[in-house]
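Handout, tutorial session.
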Amino acid sequence: MSSTTPRTRWGRAALWLRFYVGRSVALDRETVRLHRWSPRDRAAFLASKTAALPTIQAGRAADVRAGHVVFRATSAVDLGTFQSCLLDVHDEVVVAGLLDGVAEPVVVDVGANVGQFAAAVRTFVPTARIVSVEPDPDTHAKLAHNLERMGRARSHQVAVGERREVLTLHRHHVSVMATLRPGEVEDYDPALTIDVDVVPIDELTADLEQIDLLKIDVEGFEVEALRGARKTLQRTRYLLIEIGLGREASGANLEALALVREITPAARIVRFGRPLGGVEDPICQDVLIDLGH
């Protein structure tokens, strides 16, 4: 029997829900300001989101339209993270012009969840080629459904790390919080754990001559992911990596950034994204790095 109490098990989940659901109106206000997205498309997305909410709240999946992209959300967190990704991709990728001038930019999405980031990229960059990586079989099934609708996309149902092996994935009721990091699973239900295959990113991207944007969001497993991506980083233009903002994560964050610099000496940080979570207790933050290629 698990000694984890419902209170601790749902503590971080409640924080995510407060941010993504409680801030829904704030996210809508931020969506209105996306000047690189036409007013018509912004209004259509907000109308689609509003129409989808009752269905999602009733426990059923709903489609949300963002321009030509149709994203299927099965929970309020799916919908909130998709809208948040739209904001982040607009500010960190589109406005910054990272993919400008590339006919079919290649975007590798490691820690793809159900495809929120990939769908956001496609909303603004319709010609992007997507490679997504997600280890949880249930989550991957939802990802595959969203990618199939987009076309020119493929996915791998594996985790990433330094070497091929099998590790335990600690799943959570909020799927974006699944992790391979044993030291950070105190709030996780042992009954939800499963074993998953781990493959280096270098193997997953071996057929790609150049990667324009590599996004890594692996819930505390960043250092191991980067150790298995040495060759990949050497032919990648930009890295977007999520780092934890808790005190216990600071050492790993420094190690991850130092490792990026070791592999690609010309790397430089060009932008920090907005922190996610409560103002007084932020959870994580994106770091955009120009790898100098």
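The second record follows below. Compare its token runs with those of the first.
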Amino acid sequence: MNKALHRVGEYTMLMAKAISIPDRWNMFFKQLIKEIYKLGADSLWIVIIISLFIGTVIAIQISLNISSPLIPKFTIGYTTREIILLEFSSSIMCLILAGKVGSNIASEIGTMRVTEQIDAMEIMGVNSANFLIMPKILGLMIFIPVLVVFSMFTGVIGGIAASYADINGMTPASFEYGLQFYFNSFYIGYSVIKSIVYAFIIASIASYFGYGVKGGALEVGKASTNAVVMSSVMILLADVILTHLMLT
């Protein structure tokens, strides 16, 4: 319990140090653009590929499990849409990105700590936490919603592609009708808001574990693992809280 409280205190103090007004705005914006490209844009293709295949699989599995003649076939498209919009494109996709982006951030900052680059910044009077962490947090929070929208679009495209296989009576026309049936545009905003919160969780927790590395290369690996595990747990906890607050 004491160790957990100690970590929470360290995390809070680090975020207070990191989330402050930059000393040099031109350097901050250069670093921000770099982080948006490295953490966000580089993840675009993996998001598209995963979403496309998962959307296809969801549609096929729902089609195979709906065998009752009393259930209309457009339910397949409706259910696929709801799963993709409400959970997959925000929560599940961010869990996947926590593994890719979170480990990248933790290992990068951890390596800088081990090689004493952060210590050199502190000696020169640079707020190393603000310079290294703030652009990562803001960059990920800016671009994660873009990835979520791409995930929604490609996931639905994957479901439409599966409908052409005519599995268990599923047709493109019934699937497309199900996609439009009782569509609630609020769900898109709901997923985007969740993704912004998840982006902060991923970037801040990964930065905390990387920034606090003590030792050598082995500790950098442990920090990356801890960052991914803790980010995943906190994303799931935030998912429960946000769902209760926004949908009930």
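Points raised in discussion: The first helix runs from residue 2 to 18.
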